[in-house]
Amino acid sequence: MNIVVCVKYVPDATADRRFESDNTVDRVGVDGLLSELDEYAVEQSLQIAEKNEGSEVTALCIGPEKAADAVRKALQMGVHKGVHVLDDAIAGSDALATSLVLAEAVKKIGSPDLIVCGMASTDASMSVVPAMLAERLGLPQVTFAAVVETQGDQIRIKRDGDAATEVIGATLPVVLSVTDQTGEARYPSFKGIMAAKKKPFETWSLADLGVEAEKVGLSASWSVVEDTTARPPRTAGEIVTDEDGSGAAALAEFLVSRKFI
Q1: CATH class of 2-220
Q2: 54, 2 Cβ separation under 8 angstroms
Q3: Residues 6+ apart with CB under 8 A from 232
Q4: 39-77 as b/e, with b when 16 or more CB fall inside 10 Å?
Q5: Tens-digit pLDDT profile for residues 21-38
Q6: 174 - beta bridge partners?
Q7: Are 35 and 121 spatial neighbours (Cβ–Cβ below 8 Å)?
Q8: What is the pLDDT of residues 95-126, one digit of tens each?
């Protein structure tokens, strides 16, 4: 089975995240890492590959030079090959442009049986790229999977909603997205870290994919951020005492003023 898992390099949520002068997220000057939600996608890809002898998993990532670290993490976890789409023209791309580049990269990798994504990226949290990717590739989608089962060319997932649990089946090839309910992702072992250094890792440009630069980037985005304001420093909180029995009323008034109740 030929599996492609899409991974994203995102700013570390614990770091001091910033915006560029054009109001796009700074992905170069801050610490980054493989999106946590994409780790679950890598884990499910590896589990499916392990159940199907002879399977191969390729990690696919779009981003600046440092985004190669996300692919390397996937290789260390056990993925067999890595592809990094690196091109300055991609900076500032929205979900539509991102899905275009991913689709062309998937085609260049070559007719996979399964394309796996996380349920969302931890920086944008839009959850729309898997559906857009499926549309561009002309494939069915089975998304937001909490449980994944495969048998031959069949795949079945369980999707947990607010009001019901759905069981959805499809015939490969498909685009699959998984949630963090599928189980913990494995940690790279020392053996895996050393083995990753010898695994195939290719870097492609837009020209390699046949994608015109005018179709991606900030100028081609359907939405832009017009302004950003730094979060103000945290101020000292108000201490409510209850010496005369008025503490509960003061607390209720505070919650009402902040529209918590």
Answers
A1: alpha beta
A2: no
A3: none
A4: bbbbbbbbbbbeebeebebbbbbbbbeebbbbbbbbbbb
A5: 787 787 777 788 999 999
A6: 114
A7: yes
A8: 999 999 999 999 999 989 999 999 998 888 88
